[in-house]
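Q: Given only this backbone (118 positions), what sequence would you predict?
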């Protein structure tokens, strides 16, 4: 019985940390960047940086997927942080979203990774 209660509590906590990509976009970006670099190159650079970053001894799964309306999105497990990469005129726009906000060690590491790719 104790084991089942522990699993339920863990599931509730995990669910509390998730949000949908749509919810993130509706809330608005935490940071926005512009670059003359190719959107695909920037998205892949961010993908690799997030995949290789060990946060508190854990490597989170990170994915690259198409962005509705064009471009690409890099996101991690539970959509905790995500970044949209898309063209606006002759530039690439990067919108970074976090369901944690600031200050957050993970959020700051994700932002530094994006900035390193610019």
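A: Predicted residues:
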């Amino acid at each position: 019985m104790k084991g089942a209660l522990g699993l339920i509590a863990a599931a509730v906590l995990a669910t509390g940390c998730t949000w949908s990509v749509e919810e993130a976009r509706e809330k608005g970006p935490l940071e926005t960047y512009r670059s003359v670099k190719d959107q695909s190159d920037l998205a892949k650079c961010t993908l690799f940086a997030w995949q290789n970053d060990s946060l508190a001894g854990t490597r989170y799964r990170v994915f690259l997927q198409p962005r509705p309306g064009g471009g690409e999105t890099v996101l991690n497990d539970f959509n905790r942080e995500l970044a949209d990469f898309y063209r606006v005129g002759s530039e690439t726009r990067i919108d970074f979203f976090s369901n944690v906000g600031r200050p957050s060690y993970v959020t700051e590491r994700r932002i530094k990774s994006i900035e390193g790719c610019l």
